[in-house]
Amino acid sequence: MQHDELWIGTMLEGNARWVLVKSTDTVEEARRRHGMSPLATAALGRSMTGALVLASSLKGEENVTLRLLGDGPLGGVVAVGNARGEVRGYVREPLVDLPLKASGKLDVGTAVGRGELTVSRSLQNGEVYTGMVPLVSGEIAEDLVHYLLSSEQIPSAMLLGVLVEKDYHVAGAGGLLIQPLPGAPEEDIQAIENQLGRLQTGISELVAQSESMEELLSHLLGKLPYHVLERRPVGFTCMCSKERLSGTLVSLGKKEIADLISDGKAEMVCHFCNEHYQFSMDELQEIWERA
Ligand SMILES: [Zn+2]
């Protein structure tokens, strides 16, 4: 399949809405930038895909930040997605490794551990809404479903998956959210549950196998009738720049900057994309004057 995309639609004659994301290249870029192990790639990839799904109902610059802070060896995951399909993120310990689960799957739940999930929505009017729930399993999709139900009273079904090859490349990544709308008849809810229960293959494998978003949708939704409302491109995009980071340096104050100057140079690294920015003596001098 070609580019990463997010599709939004309805199903069962408008009684439910769905969001489908193919995020293979996006997660592969995150893996490459952060030099992540397969386990860290799965944890961050699921979180970034989840952030894209949740951000899809927002507008423009509005964004969603997911923070999974658990006591596992991963040490925390942060993913930020916006309504334009831009997403970025990082994990605290990118090299984390654990034995596979009995099912042969990467043990994301143990890597994340027990703790909290925080979801913050930052809106255009400057308001930020934050909700926090305990992590249910650390497997991320389950945690987001729990958050949506307990914090926003929205029943949902969600699949998130990342398939990492033996050579560490991401072969498939994606996510599906289905939400019955208020008043949806019980048989429609049952039909959605039955269809998801029938899936024998994980969403990441289905993404890897599918030639198109249509084919992926037909694997996931089976015979349930659906309608596509919107298609958007998605991708890994960071907001950092040398200018922004000099702003951060300015805010550190003259003393801190003077210490950097005495070293002769400074390097700043963006957490979100692992981009390295070098500041020369002259640039530091100019920043010191602005401070
Ligand atoms: Zn960055």
UniProtKB/TrEMBL annotation:
<dbReference type="GO" id="GO:0042026">
    <property type="term" value="P:protein refolding"/>
</dbReference>
<dbReference type="GO" id="GO:0005737">
    <property type="term" value="C:cytoplasm"/>
</dbReference>
<dbReference type="GO" id="GO:0044183">
    <property type="term" value="F:protein folding chaperone"/>
</dbReference>
<dbReference type="Pfam" id="PF01430">
    <property type="entry name" value="HSP33"/>
</dbReference>
<dbReference type="InterPro" id="IPR016153">
    <property type="entry name" value="Heat_shock_Hsp33_N"/>
</dbReference>
<dbReference type="InterPro" id="IPR000397">
    <property type="entry name" value="Heat_shock_Hsp33"/>
</dbReference>
<dbReference type="InterPro" id="IPR016154">
    <property type="entry name" value="Heat_shock_Hsp33_C"/>
</dbReference>
<keyword id="KW-0676">Redox-active center</keyword>
<comment type="function">
    <text>Redox regulated molecular chaperone. Protects both thermally unfolding and oxidatively damaged proteins from irreversible aggregation. Plays an important role in the bacterial defense system toward oxidative stress.</text>
</comment>
<keyword id="KW-1015">Disulfide bond</keyword>
<keyword id="KW-0143">Chaperone</keyword>
<comment type="similarity">
    <text>Belongs to the HSP33 family.</text>
</comment>
<keyword id="KW-0963">Cytoplasm</keyword>
<feature type="disulfide bond" description="Redox-active">
    <location>
        <begin position="238"/>
        <end position="240"/>
    </location>
</feature>
<protein>
    <recommendedName>
        <fullName>33 kDa chaperonin</fullName>
    </recommendedName>
</protein>
<dbReference type="GO" id="GO:0051082">
    <property type="term" value="F:unfolded protein binding"/>
</dbReference>
<keyword id="KW-0862">Zinc</keyword>
<feature type="disulfide bond" description="Redox-active">
    <location>
        <begin position="270"/>
        <end position="273"/>
    </location>
</feature>
